[in-house]
Amino acid sequence: MSKFLLEEVLGKVWRGRVLSRQSINEVLKKHNRNGSPYRKDRRDWNFFRADFPNDLWQMDIKGPFRIENQSYYALIVVDDHSRYIINCSLHRSIKTSDITSVLSECIRRYGKPSKILVDNDTRFKLKFKRWCKQHLYHAVYTPPYYPQAKGKVERCIRTFVEEYLWLQKVFDSVADILEDFVYWFNNRRYHLGIYGYPADVYLRKQNVTDVT
Fold this sequence. Notes:
This protein is an alpha/beta fold. About 35% of the residues lie in helices and about 15% in strands.
């Protein structure tokens, strides 16, 4: 992300860091990735992918977090099949009306999803459920205390924190480069889970090979 912004957005030269083998091993160890990838039995994995783009959207709220000494929330919507970011917007606060307004714009732009996966946040409860019913949208709720059920949007949020919010250490203002982050995520960040770029899979409406 930093390399993309410096070279393509700002036109500056990227001078990357060279990590020592010890540093790399420490990072891998922290994330439990320095052993055999086949250590887990297949029965321990519970993998799911929607069959096609717009079959299922995953939605979640991240925050509060600080940008330029102000409190913000992020509302993120991800297409389950392609990992394409449908929406990533910053809000000073988020109410159910904000969520439904964003969803309406997403549906106007990208079409109607078959299902919308959300957690049990109070902002996704009665008013949201009523709105979905009125507009014939099918809301699906994850089991309580089981964030793995919406793992794709959770992983997107992690990238948002690690790649976008981290940029505050480099740039004076990051609020103005949110669109650049979304473009990078959708078009320039190769995703091993789909063997390609989210935009290629989503916008071309092509299927991906199931890697389970």
